[in-house]
Amino acid sequence: DGGTVEIKRREVTLALRDLTGFDGRCDAVLFTTQKDFTPPNDSSPKAAWRRELSGLGNAVEQVGQFDLVVVGGGYAGTCAAVSAARMGCRVALIQDRPVLGGNGSSEIRVWPQGGTRRGLFPRLGEIVEELVDRPTQSPARAEEWNDAKREAIVRAEKNLSLFLNHHVIQVETNDGRIVAVVALDTRSGRWRRFAGTLFADCTGHGTIGHLAGADERVQEKGRMGMSNMWRWEDTDAPQPFPETPWALDLAMKDFPYPVRNHGEWFWESGFDADPIRELELTRDWNLRAVFGAFNAMKNRDGREKHRNARLEWVAYIGGTRESRQLLGDVILTRDDIAERRRFEDGCVPTTWDIDLHYPKEQYTNAYPENPFISRAVFDKAVDRVNGYPVPYRCFYSRNVPNLFMAGRNISVTREALGTIRVMKTIGMMGVAVGRAAAICKARDCTPREVYEKHLEEAKTLWRMPGAERFASIEELRKALDAGR
Question: N or C: which end of the chain has fewer CB within 10 A?
């Protein structure tokens, strides 16, 4: 209960001040003129009740019909949307954050990795290179991340409509096919419905596939975790930092010293936590670890060397590595890659080593039940020069006939995920999927039928320059008919 306040002006400014720690948040602030009113006191979702109070009722805005609806605005989704739009598809790109780039945005600051311009279809990397940042560190300073560039590229595409700050909450299906997704506009609370012929799950978590009933696989325990990276700086004068009794109680020996003034990818936890339902708890644990470490630097056994140290930046959005895998007609394995198994639909080159993360034993003593520092184990089975061509059949659902996937949620085993998950690689997946979606529209076929009936035409599009454009699907169809 926030108490009673008398408001005399018609317009007032409301601000929240966190008195409990750092990165506090609340879900909503409720005002009422009824002194005896008490809102429901339980934790179950209250979507209908909230919508009624806000005056939104049951209204759902019909945004329109699209050839391709892409959900997720990281590298995979952004590249898929741009790729399909340039081939003539009418595309909606739905992103739940205010910026594009996902883990490679200014919010999370993981530098993009993976080789482009190589393999069977080297031009699949050209759209990726348009979007990519080239930071000097991971995490780098804010000015090294160009979210505005990515947004400008997307908004320049006439066939592409961008919807930032929209979180998909429902998936509508008919006879096993997805017909629409409903997204919550996180700024206004309004619900908006996006109908489509084809859909691409580029959420990382496989959310759209999960809601649509797609076959999936989730590693029960021992997954790669989520990282919240951070930066600190040395200044010319003493800097204050309060005691943080709510953070993890750490000494300098309990964590790797953040050399080069930043806490890197290995500030990672959630190895055994539910990668969906407990993701916020994992983020909070990471934050408690970061602030506990800096408290050790400022107020405990590191204080003499860090009097002038100041926290520069802490990621409040985590970078996740592993959650759901949506299953396609091919489930790529580590042995496929190591043995150089050839698939006739191999297309996107993966060049990163098989890179899996585990808790680093040296730093598990302080909190053995939930370690927060990781180590990477590299398997050198991948040809880093030429790459291994990931088959197209990993990029569509085996049981939802109009669902594509691009990103870390594609059809791979955990070991294969270790190589395909880096951002330039998943960006090329998006390009391949966007062009396959154009084949679906031009030939009135499903993603599976692209492989079964139109694979050579798909390869034709995968060979085209990233800047190649067709004004409409009709124009693309004529080009395909002419054998271009």
Answer: N
